[in-house]
Each structure stands twice: as structure tokens, then as C-alpha cells.
Amino acid sequence: MMSIRSLAGACLSAFVALGAFAVPASAQNYPTRTITMIVPFAAGGPTDVVSRIVTAHMAQTLGQSIVIENVVGAGGTTATTRAARAANDGYTLITGHMGTHAASVPLYPKLAYHPEKDFEPVALLAGTPILILARKDFPPKDLKEFVVYVKANAEKVNAAHAGIGSVSHASCELLNSILGVKPVGVPFNGTGPAMNALVAGQVDYMCDQIVNAVPQINAGTIKAYAVATPERNPSLPNVPTTTEAGLPAFQAQAWNAIFAPKGTSPAIIATLNAAAIKALDDENVRKRLLDLGSVIPAPVNRTPEALATLVKNEIAKWTPVLKPAT
Ligand code: MLT
């Protein structure tokens, strides 16, 4: 005959065990309404383009609309601060990247969020190699001439970017530090508008993510000196690597990923992660991302845990590079 004490202990253990699997109703049925995806830069730029390609498929899987909200300013940190403070109910997400969730940490001493403490990583969407781009009539005809020209005209040349801490700003800070130059920075609300200025010849050069550059390079409206990855990119077979072009020290690849506010339930994170992975396995989504030069994450890199590790490693990588810039 079980004693009262043993019976009580057994009931308590059963209750605790059941509680561990109890998923709040809100998470069980998630999502039941439209999801807002904040994009920290102007429409038409690389972050916006990658986010729209993937979330359009995620919305089909989730059975709810995902509305993109472009929130600009301060190199993406305005939007990222807003996302960090949003309700952690799964209905406000952000497509962040190497800038908002790594480079901004050393560049903003009073950053109102911390990428690791204030967000739940959801899924890595795409790796985006960086290219050195210039207006079509910029005098240097190759990277070697670019280096000589920029050093000789350091006081006159300017470089477009999407705000302090953006990918375009951080990666060109690395390039400029390697060259030992400090060109005039020309900020925009995203490299969508910045690319328009480059095509119009209003700015001299820019370090930008490949997904923003492929259409313009193929249209012949801008110059691409090199891609800052060890291998050439299949979408741009004629663009040399920085190593081939004589500047092996400049290696830079960004990435775009989905984050949710801290405290978003594991069940909701798992639902969103599964939808993102399904999108990355869809042939149309893959074709669109690959045609724009994206590097689609291998399955092992698609987990929330892998994204958390990436963010930690990227903050550690970019902090010593960018600290002197502050
Ligand atoms: C940047 O960090 O440069 C942004 O990705 C630009 C953009 O997406 O518009």
C-alpha cells in the first residue's frame, strides 16, 4: 500500500513533469494574426531584399501575413532598439545582421540593447559577401589602381554607407584602416538609396553586400573591383577576389538573420525557425537568393543555437577592428 507521503510525492512529480511539457495556449496556436518584421534600413536595400524573399515563403508556411516595416536611422540601431523593447509574443520580429547584431556593439558605447542579452536568435537567413564598388566613371580601372588612387586622394574621395554601425560602414572601416585612409563618409538610410547615388555618380565608392550589387554590376551601371571572400562568387564569375586583385588582407562577409525579443517562448522560436528552414529549402527561394550571390546556410548553421554562436563570434571579431574608429 503506498504511503500518503509517497503518493503525494508521486503526484507532485507527475504534475511537475506535465508542467514541463505544458505549452501556453498562445504558443500552441501561434501565429493567429499578422506578424510584423522590422527591417532596420530603407526598402530596396540588401536587408530588405533578403527579408522579403524569405518571409514571403514563411508567411505561406505559417498561414499568416508577415508585414515588413522599414524603420531607419543610426545604422540600424534605431530599429533594433525598438525590436528589443517589443512584446515577446512572437508578433514583432527583426531581420538583423552583422551590423545591428555585432559591429554596433564596439561603435556605440551607449547602445540601448545588447545583441546577446536582448534577443532570442531565430534563424540565419543568408551569408552576404562584401564587394568593393565604385561609380562607373571612378578613375581606377582595377583594385591595385583603386588602392593607389584612394591613398593619393584621401582628402577628396568619399564613401557611401548606411549609417554608423551598418554593414556597409563597418566593412569599409576595415578597408579604410587597411589602406590607412579616412575618406568622407556619406550616410544614407540604407544601401538601397546609397546604390542609387553610386549609380548616379554622386558618391565615389562603397563596400556593400553582394545581394545589392549583382543587378547593378550585371547592368554595367557601377564598377566592382573585388569580392572580399576567399573564392569568387558564382553569381559574379568575372569579379576577382581581393586576394587575386592584390589586397588579401581585406576579407569581409556579412549575414542576415531573424531575431525575436528576449523571452519569446521556445515553442514560438521553434515554429519560426522551422518556417525559415522550410523557406531556405524551397527551390524558388534558393534560386532568388543564389542569383543575388547569397550564401545559403548549411543545415548545421540554421539552428537558433548556431546563430547565437555566430553573434558571439562576430562581436568578438569586429570589436578589435572597429574600436579604434570610436
Ligand atoms: C547595411 O548595413 O549597410 C545595410 O545592410 C544596408 C541595407 O540593408 O540597406
Describe the protein's architecture and organization.
This protein has 12 helices and 9 strands. The protein has 326 residues and is an alpha/beta fold. It has 2 domains: 197 residues, 3-Layer(aba) Sandwich (D-Maltodextrin-Binding Protein, domain 2); 99 residues, Periplasmic binding protein-like II (D-Maltodextrin-Binding Protein, domain 2, 3-Layer(aba) Sandwich), CATH 3.40.190. β5, α7 and β6 form a beta-alpha-beta unit. It is elongated, with a radius of gyration of 22 Å. Bound molecules: D-malate. D-malate binds next to α3, α7 and α8.
Protein topology:
Elements: H1 4-21, H2 25-28, E1 35-39, H3 46-62, E2 66-70, H4 77-84, E3 92-97, H5 99-107, E4 119-135, H6 143-152, E5 158-161, H7 167-179, E6 184-187, H8 191-199, E7 205-209, H9 210-219, E8 222-227, E9 253-261, H10 266-280, H11 283-291, H12 304-322
Parallel strand pairs: 1-2, 1-3, 5-6, 5-7
Antiparallel strand pairs: 3-9, 4-7, 4-8, 4-9
Bound molecules: D-malate (MLT).
- What is the element string, with H for helices and E for strands? HHEHEHEHEHEHEHEHEEHHH
Q: Give the number of domains.
A: 2
Please tally the helical runs, counting DSSP H or I stretches of 4 or more residues.
12
Query: What is the strand tally?
Result: 9
Q: What's the gist of this structure?
A:
This protein is of the alpha/beta class and 326 residues long.
Give the tags.
326 residues; alpha/beta; D-Maltodextrin-Binding Protein, domain 2; 9 strands; binds D-malate
